[in-house]
Amino acid sequence: MGNIVLFMHSSLDGFAAGTQGELNWVHVDEEIFDYIGKRITKTNTALYGRVTFEMMESYWPTAADQPGASKHDREHAAWYASARKVVLSNTLDETALKNTTVIGKDYATAIRKLKNETTGEILLFGSPTTAHALFAENLIDDCWLFVNPVLLGEGIPVFRDLKEKQLLKLLQTHVFSSGVVCLHHELLHENNQ
């Protein structure tokens, strides 16, 4: 059975994006890319909300072909091309998309089925609205939060609409030279406490 692993940047005050979805405060560099890249290569399934998926689709399919493409761009573009992509959306048409499944209505049942059919992990990249929906259904198993040394004051929260208290177990921390801190937590569902 597959686990859903959330990868998300966060401000120190708990926001995943600014009020308009802006991410210009997120710090990324080769050190962070290398760290995440090693982790991502351990799976071949990615989960996105529609907005994040459209952002990924506008960049990754041709990123490696651009003049001066970085090592990260070449590596992640290759992974993205081969990865199974699952998108939560009520508007996308999957027939026009390569290696992509679109889940609309009754997403909770479809995600549970996806977890049962997947060996290994399913990486949820960003997608705060999707993360909120999956947290509400108790479908996320691990969180990798990349806490950036910035206070936004307002924005789209990392966590929202939790139905009840959620216990977590800290598994690992990693401090980057930029001051970004990766916190890896396992969510303690009733069946794994």
Automatic annotation (TrEMBL):
UniProt GO BP: riboflavin biosynthetic process
Ranges of residues in domain Bacterial bifunctional deaminase-reductase C-terminal: 4-181
Gene3D superfamilies: Dihydrofolate Reductase, subunit A
Superkingdom of the source species: Bacteria
One Pfam family here: RibD_C
SUPFAM superfamilies documented for this protein: Dihydrofolate reductase-like (SSF53597)
Molecular function terms, GO-annotated: 5-amino-6-(5-phosphoribosylamino)uracil reductase activity
UniProt-recorded name of the protein: Dihydrofolate reductase
Organism in which the protein naturally occurs: Mucilaginibacter limnophilus
